[in-house]
Amino acid sequence: MEEDRSSFRCSMAMDISSERLGFVQCANLGSCRRKRVTRMRYAPLPVGDKFKFGDRQVGAVGLGTWSWGNKLLWDYDEKNDAAIAELFDEALRCGVGLFDTGNSYGTGKIEGRAEQLLGDFSEQTLYRTLADRAVFATKIAPYPWILTRQSFVEECRRSCRRLRRTKIPLAQLHWSTANYFPWQDRILWDGICDAFELGLIETVGLSNYGPQRLEQASSYLFSRGVRVVSCQVQLSLLCRGSLETGLLDLCDSKGINVIGYSPMALGLLSGKYGMAEGKKRLSGFRARVFGDRSLREIQPLLSLLGEIASTRGKTVSETAINWTLCQGCLVIAGAKNAEQGRSNFSAMNWRLSEAEVAELEAEAKKCNF
């Protein structure tokens, strides 16, 4: 498997939405053995332009709901649901049009909690018209008990009920099972096509697919009359694997929207954590995966992010998000409250210069992360 250490380390921790599934992801991001791309990419969508998903159009920054219900990694507490509802309203008010979620988001007995909260908030919000226009983008996890096309369709029906939608605006296959249950992928592909034909899904996307598997899946879905409109990948200054495999260029050539998630690398690039006085240390699961050594390793990058952010009058997290925006992606930024969200969402209103992107990438490549 051809993938760099940063991609492996980040992908190993990335999807602990359900405690039993997180290990699977590290097997998929590097599933293609294409020649690596080493040139810098600078392809930002102009400020104000939109990404199209069927008949819906959305801005360049979306809201991620991974933390909504995740007690293992993000310390979710039901007492904070009111703050999350305020965040949802703030996102709509700021022009956010895509809300990323998953049927596995939520720990243990509250699995699916993120979808449920999205559905509840969309009916309670003062911005109901904006909520109705939004793209609720859910990911269907390839659970081992999805053994038939019909069982996949039933998972989609359950997501519709939680989201309080008759159709899922964007349904995505959460990851490929090619590296451990290769026979299941065809079931998933047929299942999502069946759900599309039944009118349960408006548009179809992939998530955590490498270039080779994306080619295979998109060709098969197209043979059944279903077009892949998006591919979601982990992308940050510390996780650049999808750039180096040529995945983003492949998506460009096929007219597939790229959705970049974890632009702040599980919070490491948020500006909140570090070894300097006044900065927080990592705790819980992230401390076990990364530890103080990683924070020391990325300190020069954090310092540079801070310098650029200060010069531009922005936050560190906003600047980290903007680097991912400059790769031509729609970026998913997570938040726990309206204040965090407001800062993150403002990244859609400006762009780093090509020189700043190059400087940040040069520093990131020095990190033995």
Multimeric state of these chains? single chain
Amount of helix? 40-55%
The rough form would be described as globular
Estimated radius of gyration: 19 Å
Total number of strands = 10
Percent strand = 5-15%
Alpha-carbon distance between the termini? 18 Å
Q: Count of helical segments?
A: 16
Provide the spatial order of strands within the biggest beta sheet. Answer: 3-4-5-6-7-8-9-10
Average the pLDDT over all residues and give the rounded result: 87
Order of helices and strands: HEEEHHEHHEHEHEHEHHEHHHHEHH
- Structural class by sheet pairing and helices: alpha/beta
Uncertain runs are 1-35
Biggest sheet overview:
8 strands, parallel, barrel
In short:
With 369 residues, this protein is of the alpha/beta class. It has 16 helices and ten strands. The strands form two sheets. Strands 3-4-5-6-7-8-9-10 form an eight-stranded parallel beta barrel, surrounded by eight helices. Strands 1-2 form a two-stranded antiparallel ribbon.
